[in-house]
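Sample pair:
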Amino acid sequence: MKTALFLLYLYSATASGHGGGLDGNGGHNNRKTGEYHCHREPCLSSH
C-alpha cells in the first residue's frame, strides 16, 4: 500500500504544470499556433 501511494505521489508531481516561460503579463505565445495564451492576471482580465 505504501508503495502504491508513493508511486501515485511521484506521478502527480511529474504531471503537474509549471509557471515557467510566462512573461510579465502572465501569458506567452503558443509555439504551435503563434497565438498569445493567458495563464494568470493581469493577462486573463485583458484578453
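The chain has two helices and two strands.
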